[in-house]
Amino acid sequence: MTYIKETYTFDQYLSVPLAATFYRPTSTTDYQSTILYFHGGGLIFGQREDLPESYLELLTSAGYGVLSFDYLLAPESKLDTIIHYAHKAVNWFVDEAPTSLALPNAHYYLFGRSAGAYLSLYLAAHADDRPQANGLISLYGYYTLNEASFSIPSRHFLQFNRVNDATVKALIRSKPLVAGPMDERFILYLAGRQSGQWLNHLLTPNLKAADYSLTTQQLQSLPPTFLAAAAQDPDVPARQSRLMSKHIRDAEFHLIDTNEHDFDRTQMETHGLAVYHAMIEWINQHSPTT
């Protein structure tokens, strides 16, 4: 085992604790930086401890700690609240890394998969007075909610059994949450994509998709970014990653020849491990010198 697993509570929203799992490299003498990770799941499902063991081993053996955060899920919490507490998660790391986490530095990379990549990109573009990330890692992510395919019924998801409105209403909880049964939470996302109403789970009438999307100018201001996406992604169009690679000043883009959205989960041996090896090489090249 190349890491020690630790758990921290970094905040609380109403009665819901927000926690982070830290995968600390067992060799502290070669500690490089910390990768702050946000999971995927359409901002509706998923949970913080979803990175496969093989990837955790690769990252920690290379000297990188992985700090995986909870974040609030929609539709019980809306996007403004989700992002607010995601900001607080990163701020907590920056403030606490040298002391509470006993780390030699507060250097960090933001890493997300799918919806987690969206959060990472948004947090980097709105860092305000927080020290900027040393780099970004976006696997099959998106930078804008003004994506046509997000607001119309998805042909891909319409291949699944149709979810009716009564089922959706029954699955929405009365209290906020950061994780839930996959067989229930995925159904909520599925229903949103089948109906073209996914964004309605995230936004209220006073929240506009444009306000939670990055502009070309914001993309140009981002730190170095590693991008990977499936060429025939049926969930998040690869053009989102392709456009990011054109506008971000320092970007490395890997287009994977597959139609599996989360290829690093479903195709670990054929595509996933190669992408993570390339990711580590890229991080090494962009590691801070001090």
TrEMBL record:
Residues 35-263 form the Alpha/beta hydrolase fold-3 domain. One of its GO terms (molecular function) is hydrolase activity. Keywords: Hydrolase. Signal peptide: none annotated. Coiled coil: none annotated. InterPro entries: AB_hydrolase_3 (IPR013094), AB_hydrolase_fold (IPR029058), GDXG_lipolytic_enzyme (IPR050300). It holds the Pfam family Abhydrolase_3. This is Alpha/beta hydrolase fold domain-containing protein. It comes from Fundicoccus ignavus.
